[in-house]
Amino acid sequence: LTEDTQVWISVGADLLYLDSVDHLNGRCPSVDNSSVSSSSNCNGSPRVRIVGPAEITTVTSRPLALRAAVELPECVTDASQLSLSFEWSVYNASTGKFDAVSEGPSTLLPAFTFAPGQIGRVRVSVSSLSGIAGTKQSAADLVVFCQRSPLLAVIEGGSMRLVGRSAAFVLDGSASHDPDDLVGLPADASSWSCTEQERREGSVWRQTQAPCPIDPPSGQLVWNVASTNLSADSRYRFVLTISRDLRSASAETLVEVSA
Fold it and tell me: CA-CA distance, 176 to 152, in Å (whole number)?
């Protein structure tokens, strides 16, 4: 090259002039790195996932807490650079679309979001509005298998009580309920049973396993029991069972009748 030679080189989208003297002396003019866009090396999208397995099983009466995690592109070291925006949605089978329910990196879906027996889908979408990676979006889905909630059988007063021979007592199972039904249990959902478990002979309790001398009520959660119909110095096992839709639950209490 001679001193009159003109040399142009391409740097990114720019053309830079290199005079022959600098070239012959082995020097290269400085290059402003800001003129080369970093976005050409940052084409990845932030990838989102829902923390936990891809499929879960829950019950319709239980709220569902979910959290999202984001994997950043290699060129990004700080999530705050991306201006991330989250949206949670639930699939609506009647419309065939996802309905938005909340924003943010986590969500709490309320009870009864899914019906018993339903296979639901939850989606979280994340968008980046940063100039570093442009406008990018990714999404992740979760499959939710929804089951009926267990029935709850309750007898107020604890698992054992002592009553006098001449006293009446109440077995109250009105707190029993179906968590999936806010109306209440139907009348035919409950039943009581009673068995004489033990009888005292002197200072020794002997097992009897005999039927109770009283008939339980039908279709009632509350049983008013007259102790005069029971034998003194005996222990009776009372059981409340509630049944519905192939589900059942029981609660029991032991009642000792003193002389």
Answer: 5
Residue 52 backbone phi and psi in degrees, to 5: 110, -175
- Residue 20 φ/ψ, nearest 5 degrees: -70, -30
CA distance 83 to 79: 7
- Helix, strand, coil percent content, the chain, rounded in steps of 5: 10, 50, 40
The answer to whether the CB of 208 falls within 8 A of the CB of 196 is yes
Q: Which range has the worst mean pLDDT, 31-40, 149-158, 164-173, 250-259?
A: 31-40
First-last CA distance in the chain: 125
Tokens representing 31 are 């290059």
* Cα 244 to Cα 10, 62, 176, 181, distances in angstroms: 79, 19, 12, 11
C-alpha separations of 15 from 8, 18, 82, 220, 253 in Å:
6, 10, 31, 92, 91
Q: How many whole angstroms from its chain centre is CA 6?
A: 71
Residues 6+ apart with CB under 8 A from 219: 187, 188, 189, 190, 191
pLDDT tens readout for residues 41-98: 455 678 899 999 999 999 999 999 999 998 887 777 776 767 889 999 999 999 999 9
Question: What residue type is 27 in one-letter code?
Answer: R
Contact 47/138 with Cβ under 8 angstroms? yes
